[in-house]
Design brief:
Elements: H1 2-11, H2 17-24, H3 28-36, H4 38-61, H5 67-75, H6 86-95, E1 135-144, E2 150-158, E3 164-170, H7 175-188, E4 196-199, H8 208-217, E5 220-223, H9 233-247, H10 256-271
Parallel strand pairs: 1-4, 4-5
Antiparallel strand pairs: 1-2, 2-3
Helix pairs in contact: 1-2, 5-6, 7-8
Length: 272
């Protein structure tokens, strides 16, 4: 219908509007209503073009950003009456072919081991909290290096804000790496007493050493079912997002130094 109205407008200087409307089978009243609304459409189109330019600046800085993150960046520090609706951001991005990076690749990294004692699942897939420093989830994931080597990242994520409160990278998967991440979270939050830490049944988390550290910090352990990634999906999702957005089309990091530097940069942006 819009194309028909546009046809009438484009030829109205040469032919009568009545005749043109009859030719394309539209009502004159509908055409004039469309014509009267044209200034508003033009203004909205100009506003959208300006918004698209702002979005491109953000997306150029980090091409992994989709509409939710772009909206957050646009609204950061601006008055309430100047905030942009996320649906409008999504529409403008779609109309201008601006998309966040997507890559789907599933890798299983958990090495299960029988626990020394039974640890219940205290979260039951509810990865929310009513305040900071109440509930945490964690995992350890591999970071592939060119040539076949790996680094390993251990994480401690606050369920309230999704902040990465503690993390550690090493070239091994021993328990002291996940312990370092938990100690880093304790330092960041000035203690973890009374908090719950949820993980899978990886051997690092079921060890006596890690259980003793949790006791010293006043942390209660929680674990999902063996072999069920959904029971720790918040941590799994974080790992997938990091590797997808940093590696993008690559399969490995070129060397350990580059890996550590890029992960540090991504984590810093993620937390801010």
């Amino acid at each position: 219908m819009v194309n028909r109205f546009r046809f009438v407008a484009d030829h109205s200087d040469t032919y009568e509007v009545k005749r043109l409307c009859e030719l394309v089978e539209v009502k004159r009243s509908s055409y004039y209503a469309w014509k009267s609304a044209e200034p508003g459409r033009t203004a909205r189109a100009e506003d959208d073009a300006q918004l698209a330019a702002r979005i491109r600046v953000i997306h150029t800085e980090d091409n992994t950003y989709g509409a939710p993150r772009v909206t957050a960046e646009l609204n950061d520090g601006v008055p309430p009456d100047e905030k942009v609706n996320h649906k409008r951001v999504a529409r403008v991005m779609r109309e201008n072919d601006i998309v966040g990076y997507r890559r789907r690749r599933r890798v299983t990294t958990t090495v299960p081991e029988p626990a020394d004692h039974k640890v219940p699942d205290l979260l039951k897939r509810d990865f929310t909290a009513d305040a900071p420093n109440r509930r945490y989830v964690g995992d350890i994931t591999y970071l592939p290096i060119e040539g076949g080597a790996n680094l390993y990242l251990a994480t401690v994520i606050d369920c309230y804000s999704r902040k990465l409160a503690g993390w550690a990278i090493a070239d091994h998967m021993r328990t002291d790496r996940v312990a370092d991440a938990l100690r880093a979270a304790a330092q960041d939050r000035n203690g973890l007493a009374g908090a719950v830490f949820h993980s899978d049944h990886g051997s690092q988390y079921t060890s006596k050493e890690f259980a003793a550290l949790c006791d010293r910090l006043g942390v209660t352990q929680s674990m999902g079912m063996v072999g069920t990634s959904a029971d720790n999906s918040l941590a799994e999702s974080f790992n997938a997002a990091l590797k997808r957005e940093v590696l993008q089309n690559a399969n490995t990091w070129p060397d350990e130094a580059t890996c550590r530097r890029q992960v540090f940069r991504w984590v810093t942006r993620y937390n801010t």
